[in-house]
Amino acid sequence: AAGAKPSARRVEPDVYRPPASSDATSGGGVSVQIFFAHDSALLTADAKSELDKLGQALVAPELAQERWFIEGHTDASGSDGYNEDLSQRRAFSVMSYLVQNHRIRPELLIPVGKGESELYDPNDPNSNINRRVRVKPAGD
């Protein structure tokens, strides 16, 4: 289109990207968050890039024996039952990627579907920032 600026990278539709200065540790403790498109458990290119960094860290000797929660979350736009299922699928999507691509032992990963019970932004329950998986140490 006339006047359109070329993009240096492909943009995933409707997927929240935290600001570069954000540490995205909502809920306390050290955590990593992976964001999803609306009504999707498919990993985006950005999500895979973040999971590749995480996977490299999790196989390091100091973390290789640690257990991790893989918490799936949704926004509030669906029914409670649907959101529970979608959040579980998101958690399993992240877990499968880490197991298959980084050889993380599955028994060290604990997938949990939280649905819309722990919104990242409770003031905007349908915001795309709420569509995420949080990976955090099981010791928290």
Describe the 3D structure.
- This protein has 140 residues and is of the alpha+beta class.
- Helix content is 26%, strand content 14%.
- It has two helices and four strands.
- A four-stranded mixed sheet has the order 1-4-2-3.
- Helix 2 links the parallel strand 2 and strand 3.
- Helix 1 crosses helix 2.
- The radius of gyration is 15 Å and the shape is elongated.
- About 18% of the residues have low confidence.
Characteristic key phrases:
140 residues, alpha+beta, 2 helices, four-stranded mixed sheet
Topology readout:
Elements (H helix, E strand, L loop, with lengths): L31 E4 L9 H14 L9 E5 L7 H23 L6 E5 L18 E6 L3
What's this model, at a glance?
The protein has 140 residues and is of the alpha+beta class.
Large-scale geometry: elongated
- Give Rg in angstroms: 15 Å
Q: Which structural class is indicated by helix and strand composition?
A: alpha+beta
Order of helices and strands: EHEHEE
Stretches where pLDDT falls below 50 for ≥5 residues? 4-13, 16-30
Helix content: 25-40%
Q: Give the biggest sheet.
A: 4 strands, mixed
Work out the helix count. 2
Q: N- to C-terminal separation?
A: 50 Å
The count of strands amounts to 4
Taken as a percent bin, the fraction of beta residues is: 5-15%
Strand numbers in spatial order across the main sheet: 1-4-2-3
Mean of all residue-level pLDDT scores: 84
